[in-house]
C-alpha cells in the first residue's frame, strides 16, 4: 500500500545534532536544583559543583543511559481493554491539558478551569473513539495549589477508564499519586506492569532542572510510572535564534533528564517529547510558525534515532475560537505529522485552542483525526482495487452502485460523522455551524455516557489519601 510519508533531516544531520547535544552536556553542562539528583550524577561519574548546582555529563554517561531506557512502554488503563503499547508503529491521540483556562461549553467564554471541567473532559475523552489517553483538561483552580495535581488526577481517574496523563510538581505529590494509582490497580507490582497514568515533567529550558519536578520524576521512575520529558525552548529567547540551535537545547534537555531518570532507576520508562517553539519578537509571545513545526518533526527523528517512544505537541493552533481557522490549523498540522516519518507514538493536543482548551474543539479534533488517519493509510493498488473487470462490465455511461465490488468495498470509504456535506441537508437540519454541532455532541455525551465508576471501597480509600495529603501539605 502506498503511504504518503517523508523525512527531511538526513542521517548526517541527525548525527550532527546528536553530537552537538552531547558536546553541550559535556562542556556547558546543566543546572540541577536537586541535591539528591546531583548526588546521583556525581556517583555515576559526572562532574558536580554543589555550590552552583552545576553538573557536566560525560558522553559515555549519556550513551549508557540511552541503553538503559526501555524502547517500548506499556500504557495501562483502569479498563484493560484500553491498554496500549508505545512501540513506534502507530499514533495514539491525547487531549491537551496545558492551559489553566477553558472555553466554557455552556457560555462560550474563557475562564479558569475547575475539577468539574476535568471530570467533563475525562468523560468526553472516554467516549471519543480516537482518544486513547487523556491529559487532564484543565486545573482544579478552586483548590489550594499543593492539592491541584492530586485532585486533578483523582478526578480524571474517576471519570475515564482510559490512561491518564498528569504531572507531579514535587516528590511528595508523586508519592501520593503513586499511592492513589496503587489503590486502583491493587498493588505496586501491577502498577509497574500496567501503569494507569503517566506524568509530563518539564525541564526548564535552557539546560535547567527544577528541584520539585526533578525529584517528583525520580519518585515516579522508581515506581515504574512513565515520565514524559517535555522541554519547550523558544527560538531566540530560551534557545538560539536558529532552529538547529534550538533543537540542540531541546534534545539536550531531554537527554539530561533521561540520564537522571536512568541513573536513579535503571530501566525507568521515559518518553521523549519533541517540544520546541518560536516567538513573536515584538511581543515575546509564543507563536505558531513553520519553524516550530519543522523543529518538532526533526526532534521526532532524533527520538527514533535513539529508539525512544516519543510524544509530540501537534494540535496547538493560533485560533482563539472554534472557527474555520482552528479546523484549518488542526488539519494542516495533523496531516503534516502523520505524513512524515517517524509518526509520533503520542499525538498531543486535541481540544487545544490558542491559550485555552475546549470540549467542543476536542470533539471536532476527533473527527479530523478520523479523516487524517484515513489519509495516512494511503491507497492500495492490486488487481482487485484496480477493478478493470468491473469497469468493463459497467461500460461507458454506466454506474457502479449495483456491483458486488461496490458492496464489498463501500464501507472502506471515509464518511463524515459530525458535519454534513449537502447544503440542502444543512438547511433542513437548522443551519448550524460546526461549533454548534460539536456543542450538541458535548451535551449528548455528558448526558448519556457513563464510564464505569471505581469500586466503592477503592473510591473511599482515594478519599482517605486525599485527606491525608491535605493534612500533610498543611496550607
What does this 3D model show about the protein?
- By secondary structure, this protein is α/β, with parallel strands linked by helices.
- It folds into two domains: 65-377, Alpha-Beta Barrel (TIM Barrel); 383-412, no CATH class.
- 48% of the residues lie in helices and 14% in strands.
- The protein has an eight-stranded parallel sheet. Strands 2-3-1-12 form a four-stranded mixed sheet. Strands 14-16-17 form a three-stranded mixed sheet.
- Helix 2 (35-44) crosses helix 9 (243-264), helix 5 packs parallel to helix 6 and helix 6 (171-185) runs parallel beside helix 8 (211-222).
Quick tags:
single chain; 475 residues; alpha/beta; TIM Barrel; 2 domains; 8-stranded parallel β-sheet; 21 strands
